[in-house]
Design goal:
This protein has 19 helices and 17 strands. It is α/β, with parallel strands linked by helices. Helix 13 links the parallel strand 11 and strand 12. The longest helix has 27 residues. The protein is globular and about 85 Å long. It starts with 21 loop residues before the first helix and ends in a 7-residue tail after the last strand.
Length: 555
């Protein structure tokens, strides 16, 4: 079977391509479309017809242009500095793929091929894209699409590729790579302190290792000497935010202007993370696994903020799915929530998820702004002649008030639900007979589960003299720092933020779970590593005191 050749009039040697448009080239690279919006046509595996929406460049070569490994195939870089220069051997760029990935037998041999070639030009790139021939006259892999591209399309793509990962990202110099962690002054001071201490301990630990490599450059085998150019000391900046969240973006801007950082990592604020997430997305600044129940969920795909889960939005959807399945004939539901984001966010998600399962006329909503109003709502529900089948509570910061009122009034309602953070304050002895009937949304791993890596993390914290006061919070913070460490191993000295994020996507799929969630994984462009939650109830008779009453629910 012979390769399909796209019929085009050949370019005249030396004749310039049409005036380029890098914006149109970006659309072609990302979406496989021409300036008219029409998808380009292509052929793969010699005779399979596809269009650009199915096989756009970014799908394999990634946003950074550095490629990687895809389906057991090596995908080479197509960034401007690499593509439009003669091919050079760079062991650093293939080190991880050779020695730290599980790949098919032929992969290592394929990666080791030198593939020496002259620098691409616009004309030779057109030949590669249309006919699958590189500047040295070699045939490219048949899985590389042969695109039906006109001369203006090629010119546009060339213009865009010349900008792709062409300038190293801010926050890095020859000696230091800068990171920030973001905390707010109204976050729980004990939790905030635990996060900052964990991040600081990890930075210190990494710098001690880096200093050892730098002070003894000849101590190791040759491959470590080659990697020495990637070593940087880590510099941590703690960005503390004050006052109302509407001012946070400007506060971050001022601190970023003083010292740009390569990435924001971990962190803890009281309230929605959106101001920080929007700043990071707008400035193409990676934001790596902050500790938040209120992440920025809108327009998250391929953005620069990476989260553990969708937080309270996920909890609202999971609860709606569970109630719809377990109680399909539910007559009436009382929906009680605070009037802040910790109440309105899950309620909005719950409402959207129940729109086709529980009609609005069967849901009565109660909103409160303080503890007294919450207690009065629960008192009235407990004494009302209008009986409810379920009470769904999103108390925000007023968990203790909710539990006190439930304990006092003991409403005779078949199902009473609370969010996951209520488990930190729930006391079975305080609630009496009601304790066993409470249900909680729980987007974490069950206490009875076994994760070997969690023991290593605990050992590391003891070695760093860290008191483990908030295990989940500190373990999540450690995981965020680990993702930075291993992503930088992939990046080596190609310090481009998009490439760094692709390293995090890749590493999240490896066996690095610290036990806080059943699974943590990211596909290309995904920004939420954990996708579901359990519904649980207290049970003092089993290890950990929690019993799952549902499977892991992914809405």
């Amino acid at each position: 079977m012979t390769a399909a050749i796209i019929s085009f009039a050949p370019l005249v040697p030396g004749e310039p391509l049409p005036a380029p448009n890098s914006g149109a080239g970006r659309e072609l690279y990302w979406h496989g479309t021409t300036p008219s919006g029409a998808p380009i046509q292509a052929t793969i595996a010699n005779d399979i017809k596809v269009d650009g929406s199915q096989f756009s460049c970014v799908n394999c070569h990634r946003p950074s242009g550095f490629g990687g490994s895809e389906g057991g195939k090596f995908v080479p870089p197509v960034t401007g500095p690499v593509l439009f220069s003669p091919r050079q051997l760079n062991r650093n760029r293939i080190y991880t793929k050779l020695f730290e990935e599980s790949q098919p037998t032929g992969f290592a041999a394929d990666v080791r091929k030198p593939r020496m070639r002259p620098a691409y030009t616009g004309q030779t790139l057109a030949g590669a894209l249309r006919n699958g021939v590189d500047p040295a006259g070699r045939k490219l892999d048949p899985q590389m699409p042969r695109y039906d591209l006109g001369d203006p399309d090629v010119a546009n793509l060339v213009a865009y590729l010349k900008t792709l990962s062409a300038v190293p990202s801010p926050g890095v110099d020859s000696e230091v790579i800068h990171f920030a962690t973001v905390v707010s002054d109204d976050a729980d001071p004990r939790e905030r302190d635990a996060v900052i201490k964990t991040v600081s301990a990890f930075v210190g630990w990494m710098n001690r290792a880096t200093d050892g490599y730098r002070k003894r450059p000849g101590f190791s085998p040759n491959h470590m000497s080659e990697l020495a150019s990637a070593f940087r000391n880590w510099k941590l900046h703690v960005w503390e935010l004050h006052g109302h969240s509407e001012t946070w973006s400007e506060q971050i801007r001022r601190q970023y202007d003083i010292q740009p950082v390569f990435a924001v990592v971990s962190g803890l604020v009281h309230g929605a993370w959106s101001p920080i997430g929007e700043f990071c997305d707008a400035n193409q600044l990676p934001c790596v696994f902050p500790n938040t129940e209120l992440p920025k969920t809108r327009d998250a795909e391929n953005a620069y903020s990476i989260y553990f889960s969708r937080g309270l939005t996920l909890e609202g959807e999971v609860l709606a799915r569970y109630l719809g399945r377990q109680y399909p004939r539910m007559a009436r539901l009382a929906l009680v929530h605070s009037n802040d984001p910790y109440g309105t966010t899950p309620v909005d998600a719950f409402r959207r998820a129940t729109s086709s399962g529980i009609p609005d006329e069967r849901i009565q909503e109660f909103e409160f702004s303080n503890a007294a109003e919450l207690k009065e709502i629960i008192r009235k529900l407990a004494s009302s002649a209008n009986k409810f089948d379920a009470l769904v509570l999103w108390p925000g910061d007023r968990v203790d008030a909710a539990l006190t009122a439930l304990s006092k009034w003991q409403p005779k309602i078949k199902v009473i639900t609370l969010p996951s953070d209520a488990l930190a304050e729930e006391r079975p002895e305080k609630l009496g007979a009601l304790a066993g009937s409470l249900l909680f949304v729980y987007p974490y791993e069950l206490p009875s589960a076994y994760h070997p890596r969690s023991f290593l993390v605990r050992q590391w914290m003891h070695a760093q003299h860290l008191d483990i006061t908030f295990p989940r919070l500190q373990f999540q913070t450690y995981y965020a720092m680990t993702m930075v460490e291993f992503a930088l191993d992939q990046v080596h000295d190609d310090f481009y933020r998009d490439y760094f994020i692709e390293g995090i996507e890749h590493e999240a799929e490896n066996n690095l779970n610290i036990g806080t969630h059943p699974t943590l994984a990211l596909g290309p462009g995904q920004r939420f590593a954990s996708k579901g939650a359990y519904i649980v109830r207290s049970d003092s008779k089993i290890p950990g005191g929690l019993r799952a009453v549902s499977d892991w629910i992914v809405p």
